[in-house]
Amino acid sequence: MKIYTGSGDRGKTSLFSGERLSKNNVRVEAYGDVDELNACLGVLAAALNPGSKSRAELLEIQSNLLKTGAWLATMPLSSSAAELDVFNDQLIRELESAIDRMERDLMPLKSFILPGGQMTAALAHVARTVCRRAERHVVAVSAAAKEDQVPDSFRLLLVYLNRLSDYLFVLARYCNHIAGEDDLIWKR
After folding, report:
1. What's the rounded mean pLDDT across residues 51-63?
2. Could you give the domains of the chain?
3. CA–CA separation, 66 and 35 (whole Å)
């Protein structure tokens, strides 16, 4: 199978379920952002110590995001073929637990910080902003669907993405901490 088909040359793309949509459709935007987030996490994971807990967590998150993209590329959200069982309260608790674990080693924030510092911290901040964009587009997909077409697992996806951006913020701070660098405090 060739990677290029030419079928998208006129600004349309096919979903896994066969529908053709404009490449600027909110659903395509959402799974494109999730894919971009996944790529950002891949770069971040590659920059982390191979044996680190954070790297292992990121690889698990990447797997979840790949499933998310497939789900967003299937219509309708409520179809059994599209039902995403990956998102549950346990995954959200795992992110919260990781946040709590890292925060135990960090000084409490008393002011805004600038994204940056050590390279892995900067990469985590980039991933965080892409995650926030993905979250906004997933919210738009949810808003465009009929209420009875939005399964509970989709609502949990929104919580997961929100918590993931929090995780990435704390991970950025944690990366600076373990490298012995201070957060970049915003000076007004």
Report:
1. 96
2. 18-185 (1.20.1200.10)
3. 7
